[in-house]
Design a protein that fits this description.
Elements lengths: L2 E5 L1 H19 L7 E4 L2 H17 L5 E4 L29 E2 L2 E2 L3 H10 L10 E6 L11 E5 L6 E6 L1 H4 L3 E6 L12
Parallel strand pairs: 2-3, 4-6, 5-6, 6-7
Antiparallel strand pairs: 1-9, 8-9
Helix pairs in contact: 1-2
């Protein structure tokens, strides 16, 4: 499968710094601000945003992790035993972050999951990549990069904490194997 790099480690770093400034500006400061990342890579990005805000505001923000597995509308397609990664939101909620915005269904599931922890005053969505193709009326408040894609392309975000490197690539999705065709 061939892919092309659309964000380097340095571009991701700059996007996180820019988004951190935008979040503080939109919030009019840091009072009441928390960051919640959607498992897995969104959690790493939420921690990076918090670190950037600490650098320029001198305030340490609480960061949580949200597992949306059981809130997905395609749960039955995940198999018998979906991989649950865990939720950790030990504070009052007030914000959210994710890594790629596509159909909007992941964000809808995250908003459903957040309701389990109370009613936030506001939820703002920060994403590293917005690739379009919305199926629900959801938009990001803060975007690292807008990337027009086709539905046949995959956007792969990699973060050092999980993947050993920071990068965003676009690759062609593998063609579906016709039913009854033997695999490789």
């Amino acid at each position: 499968m061939t892919s092309r790099r659309i964000m380097t480690a340095d571009e991701i770093r700059r996007a996180v710094i820019r988004i951190s400034h935008e979040i503080v500006e939109k919030q009019a400061g840091t009072a009441g601000l928390v960051l919640i990342g959607i498992q897995r890579r969104g959690v790493s990005l939420a921690h990076r945003l918090a670190e950037a805000i600490t650098e320029h505001e001198g305030v340490t923000l609480p960061v949580g992790a949200l597992d949306i597995t059981f809130y997905r509308d395609d749960l039955s397609m995940l198999g018998q035993s979906p991989l649950v990664k865990g939720t950790d939101v030990p504070f009052e909620i007030g914000g959210a972050t994710d890594d790629v915005l596509y159909t909007g269904r992941t964000v809808r599931a995250a908003m459903d999951a957040l309701r389990e922890f109370g009613r936030p005053r506001a939820v703002r969505l920060a994403v590293l990549v917005d690739r379009g193709h919305r199926e629900l009326p959801i938009r990001a408040d803060h975007v690292g990069k807008n990337v027009p894609t086709s539905r046949e392309e995959l956007v792969k975000v990699r973060v050092t904490e999980i993947d050993g490197e920071d990068a965003v690539d676009i690759a062609q999705a593998p063609a579906p194997t016709p039913v009854g065709t033997p695999g490789p």
